[in-house]
Structure of tRNA-specific 2-thiouridylase MnmA:
Amino acid sequence: MKVLAAMSGGVDSAVAAARAVEAGHEVVGVHLALSRMPGTLRTGSRGCCTVEDSNDAWRACDKLGIPYYVWDFSERFKEDVVDDFIAEYEAGRTPNPCMRCNERIKFAALLEKALALGFDAVCTGHYAKVIRDTEGNPELHRAADWAKDQSYVLGVLTGEQLEHCIFPLAETPSKAEVRAEAEARGLSVASKPDSHDICFIPDGDTRGWLAERIDMTKGEIVDATGAPLGEHEGAHAFTVGQRKGLKLGTPAADGKPRFVLEIRPKENKVIVGPEALLAVDELRGIRISWAGLPIADAAAGIEFDCMVQVRAHGDPVDARARVETQEDGSAVLVATLIEPMRGVAPGQTMVIYQGTRVLGQATIDSARSTAWDPSLVS
């Protein structure tokens, strides 16, 4: 099989490519140049996809004896990930750019180009696995090592995309084993640290980065009843669950800290309250996609049991979910949580599971708590 190995410059993608070569596939390595922003060209940048990463990817391919290319996806990355990130914050949501990158760049755009060039599949270093059902349809499942499982960030993949995905690290019991294998294979990235932070904000200062791109105007900070407490420099700089940086002059009656409960960008208002009100028990999600064929109940609009996860390494919680069709014909995924979940922000992605299987995902449009009525704040 002709396989395109996506080479991030890290140890996982290098070992995944090595295993694809060992399996007898015709492998070609490619590194995606995603940003032309100056910060990502600097030594020590804390994200992924830097020039240093490109060099590490080239060295890995050279060691494996496979061709290596760099594809410039920077324009599409700006449009589909960076601009989307800004737009989501402007709408009062807290996006996950890595989810959007996986959805629109690392699989949609990359796979589209790979298939056009005659490749059969794309290979990546993600910790997840594809399993076939009794009729041969692909399903996305958690990896063997739950501590490193990345099925959450792949929840945006469709069944058609899963048909052309290879995840060689699926059954690997630990990251330590991957590093040991890389060392044994003589790959220079064996001890390279994992990437972190948002790649296009290399210094990690998300608030400062947004302030340069979104108009920040002063507005009110109010409590859960609508009573004014202070002033902010720009609602877009806040996120649900935030505690620090509120700079409230009036302490709470009980002396306990307050947290951001809701952001209303149209009103330029930030609502804060006690930690207890961060616990939500209903999530409503838009932009639904299914990782393979949807289960029969979901397709029929019948409520079904599942587990919901809202962070890459968060704990899944039991829930009942259903798909509702709105008056405009759009679909909304509604998940009622058996146990409330704390600090969920609109814009996050909820991925739903049954056992180890990823059923699909949706972007959270609202997160509700039955303990608080947002309409109290006019």
Notes: Confidence is low (pLDDT under 50) at residues 40-47. The chain has three domains: 2-184, 215-273, 277-376. Residues 215-273 form a domain with the SH3 type barrels. fold (CATH 2.30.30.280). Residues 97-116 form the longest helix (20 residues).
